[in-house]
Design goal:
The complex is a heterodimer of chains A (about 375) and B (about 100).
Chain A: H1 2-5, H2 10-23, E1 28-34, H3 35-44, H4 46-49, E2 54-61, H5 63-66, H6 69-79, E3 84-88, H7 102-107, E4 111-114, H8 118-127, E5 132-139, H9 144-157, E6 162-169, H10 171-180, E7 188-192, H11 193-199, H12 204-211, E8 215-218, H13 222-237, E9 243-245, H14 257-266, E10 267-274, E11 278-287, H15 296-299, H16 315-319, H17 351-357
Parallel strand pairs in A: 1-2, 1-7, 3-4, 3-5, 5-6, 7-8, 8-9
Antiparallel strand pairs in A: 6-11, 10-11
Chain B: E1 5-15, E2 18-25, E3 28-33, E4 46-50, E5 53-58, H1 60-72, H2 77-91
Antiparallel strand pairs in B: 1-2, 1-4, 2-3, 4-5
The chains are: A alpha/beta (about 375), B alpha+beta (about 100).
Bound molecules: iron/sulfur cluster (SF4).
Chain lengths: ~375, ~100
């Protein structure tokens, strides 16, 4: 409880926790989809606070973590080419590929640059007509509108030396895959508020109905999460399975229509591999044929990419909620944020990094407690 | 990259047909694309920004709350990075790194 006490709204938080404990006549299992929510839950000790009433399973909503190894290896191959300026969000630079990461490629002379926005990458292309600028287009529905606009503008402004390496994933197919797994334990979801700010929640309605699970669109702040959990538990206790919106401050049912529209014009649904999980049908985005010229995988011959995952990393089980990070044998030993074996230890949105940073490794490492 | 950061639009301009704005994030200023909220926002409004794009409008109280929450979660790395390098990186956009 000490974690929530450190939060400025501790008393409201404890009242919400009491509401959840009162409502729960049994122990329910919920999954938060978004890595930002995982971060809050672990940092504020919300899982411990709700012990006995609710078990929180951490979902696959960390874009850095689920980017498949072959896409990382393609990024490494592109970044090593002399004619390429490879651009990326900062989070991707330390994600381990089969034998190194983007930082290592840069140390060996690769031209790798961090950009804040894909429009910065486009601007680089405009200023370097003699070079090929490639942007690593990763992420969920929150980054797709930005990446769609960069490609749209490249065509509009006639910038030929810009392309993107696409590794976009979308949330609803992953939820469906988790629910369809015979080993599934998830009884309700907290959907990611920021994803829904873009997309709205109409896609979740058939999932809630078909699988009879409550889905609550939830923000990422501690009180948001507690309220989202309370709403999900109250639905479960009364036998309802609806899409409800906790995050009314920022989310509407339709989302941000101009952003959705451009994403649909530039991208189409495609099968995608999720790192540690495998291929989920129609779970990602790829460029539409009209924009194929801007697809780095078509523009460059990358040959055959052979990938090898480190055998010790159990990221797949962590990302699907079957294993808590501290139960991975490498956690805090061979695998730390300084020397990550897997992506969930790299990203600030990754579950392994959240457990490590907030001291949740002590249960597995009694010798280091103190 | 997934959590949006709230900021206040302090100026608006047009970049070859693309609505852009200068957004202040607790003292750090950045160019942000306003195309997805065009018509809904004007200078002085608060918006949630994802990787350089305003995605939704928020009120001032919500913007402050979210900003504080991000700070408490030490999730403002993106902003810290922007503060440290973004403007410099844009200024030197035309040069190759050493
Ligand atoms: S602790 Fe490290 S090795 Fe274990 S699952 Fe997490 S990232 Fe992989």
């Amino acid at each position: 409880m000490k974690y929530l006490d450190e939060y400025r709204d501790g008393p409201i938080g404890r009242a919400l926790a009491a509401r959840i404990h009162r409502a729960a006549t049994r122990r329910w299992t919920l999954m938060e989809v978004c890595g930002g929510q995982t971060h809050t839950i672990v940092r504020q000790g919300i899982d411990a606070l709700l012990d006995g009433a609710v078990e929180m399973i951490h979902g696959p909503g960390c874009p850095v973590c689920v980017t498949p190894l072959e896409q990382i290896d393609k990024a490494l191959a592109l970044a090593a080419r002399p004619e390429v300026i490879f651009t990326s969000f900062g989070d991707m630079l330390r994600v381990p590929g089969s034998d190194c990461d983007l930082l290592a490629v840069r140390a060996r002379g690769g031209n790798v640059r961090i950009v804040y926005s894909p429009l910065d990458a486009l601007e680089l292309a405009r200023r370097h007509p003699d070079r090929e600028v490639v942007f690593f287009a990763v992420g969920f529905e929150t980054t797709a509108p930005a990446n769609a606009m960069a490609v749209w503008r490249a065509r509009e402004l006639g910038i030929p030396n810009f392309s993107i390496l696409v590794s976009h994933v979308t949330v609803p197919p992953a939820m469906r895959a988790i629910l369809a797994d015979p080993a599934n334990r998830v009884q309700g979801f907290l959907a990611a508020g920021h994803v829904c700010a873009v997309m709205g929640w109409t896609e979740y309605e058939p999932i809630a109905a078909a699988h009879r699970v409550p889905i609550v669109v939830t923000g990422f702040e501690p009180l948001d999460i507690l309220e989202g959990i309370a709403m999900a538990v109250e639905q479960l206790e009364s036998g309802r399975h609806e899409v409800e919106n906790q995050y009314v401050r920022s989310v509407t049912r339709e989302g941000t229509v101009p952003a959705r529209t451009l994403v649909e014009q530039v991208f189409e649904l495609a099968d995608r591999r999720w790192r540690g999980i495998g291929t989920i049908p129609m779970s990602g985005l790829t460029l539409r044929p009209a924009f194929a010229d801007y697809d780095a995988e078509r523009r460059f011959d990358l040959g055959t990419i052979r990938v090898s995952e480190p055998a010790e990393c159990r990221a797949g089980e962590v990302l699907t909620g079957q294993l808590k990070p501290r139960d991975c044998p490498a956690f805090g030993r061979a695998c730390t944020p300084e020397h990550p074996l897997g992506a969930p230890m790299v990203s600030s949105e990754g579950a392994c990094a959240a457990y490590f940073n907030y001291g949740r490794y002590r249960a597995a490492e009694p010798a280091e407690a103190g | 990259m997934c959590l949006g950061i709230p900021g206040r639009i302090i100026a608006a301009h047009d970049d070859q047909g693309l609505p852009m704005g200068t957004v202040d994030f607790g003292g750090v200023r950045r160019d942000v694309c306003l195309a997805y909220v065009a018509g809904e926002v004007s200078v002085g409004d608060y918006v949630i920004v994802h990787v350089g794009f305003a995605i939704s409008r928020v009120d001032e109280a919500e913007a402050r709350r979210t900003f504080e929450a991000l700070r408490e979660m030490s999730q403002l790395d993106e902003l810290e990075w922007m503060r440290a390098t973004a403007d410099a990186a844009l200024d030197t956009l035309g040069e190759d790194p050493t």
